[in-house]
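Milestone M4 deliverable, item 7.
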Amino acid sequence: MRKTVRNDVADPGTEVLVVGAGPTGLALACDLARRGLHPLVVERAPGLFPGSRGKGIQPRTLEVFDDLGVLDEVLRLGGTAPVGMAWRDGTRLGEHRMFDEVRATEQAPYVGPWLLPQWRTQEILLARLRALGGDVRFGQELTELTQDAEGVEAVLVAAEGGEARTVRARYVVGADGGRSTVRRLTGIKMTGERVDATPVLVADVVITSLDRDHWHMFPPAEDGSRGFAAVCPLPGTDVFQFVGQYPQAREELTADDVRALVAELTHVRADEVTEVRWASDFTVNAALADRFRAGRVFLAGDAAHIHSPAGGQGLNTSVQDAYNLGWKLAAVLRDGAPEALLDTYEEERLPNAAAMLGLSTSIHRGRARRGAATRQLGLHVRDSSLTEEHRADIPEEGVAAGDRAPDGRRDGVRLFDLFRGPHFTLLAVDTDLPEQLPALPRLRTARIGAYASYGRGLFLIRPDGYIAWAARSAADAPALMAWSKQVAGPTGLIPADA
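Output delivered:
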């Protein structure tokens, strides 16, 4: 019988236990750490995920990475998506654009998708977490989970046969993937469908006979005898990501299996695949957890929603789960916000995840193309209970409460620089700030001149970059004070010149 050791003393004051060190768990841990919390991050594997799987980073996620302080590294180590090149029997059929060409604008400075292998994204996030004083405990498997009114007890077992130990935390976040142990232990079900019955193999390979200027596409045979394949160069590496329809999934994949499938689906010979660095196969499913919260336990990322890789929405939706949840956990744990604030995580993220699932499935089945929706800049929380709009006549060019707050430069202020960090921002556009400000921790304020992308008014920007509250002028300040009690409690007023 395995002995269980209580570990409350070894982990004093664990506020949030994050299970899983993929992009979701690491992004959440970074967000919590920069807000002064000390999350305990555990990962069953002995190290970071080694593959390139989620390689496309959408513009909205680039904005998140800007705020988290990792954008420079993401841009330095990644690259734009290359032009597609279609092949048939070793003959080039011609180039085609994989994505709509979009130019950067003042309001949306980042375009995409930006290609970066998933393993490198995780390395960047882990380095940021360590710079913030956090880390990951690898080789720790969650086996039991129980909760009460005050917290959650989790039993962790070392992968190398160590003793089981119990850790107590105020909250637990399951960011542990599509086969989530946290989801299973909380009894949350998933509802979904099989998107494609044909298994898919994805592998990181070195190929000597293909140029690195194109995303190489190999259409399926017209008679159905051969499936689809794609070979994409991964920026900053000597590796291609190979994706191919797989005749039959196998319990174990060898390098020779990968080479054989590359040769079967493309004109590349098996001996031209000089290295196979990572490989995995899967069947394309779409599924959504029935709930994203069970008491003090939350689901995020693939633990909450499983996508087709078509359209590049899975990793991006997952990182934005973390970005939504991080500031809310910190508001409750650090700033005295009512616990009901945490209910808005599921309220906001479940509909967004459902929409992105539907988009991914439609793209996979050829019913939609990769366009504006895949960039995720149009996602909003207008229907959230946290969103209040007090203007009756919103300009056609302007944004509404619940929309993403656009970037821009006015009167020497870059808005994304103003918004960056773990705070709310009260922005007065072509009007005055109120004399009294809501008691929101670390609130920043700014006044700028006319800007059509907003329209005239007052705008309270949430820590995750969405407009929480909007009104015409300082005369609406009492409504802002009432709204602020949802995220800070009834703690009084702050003078505008404080």
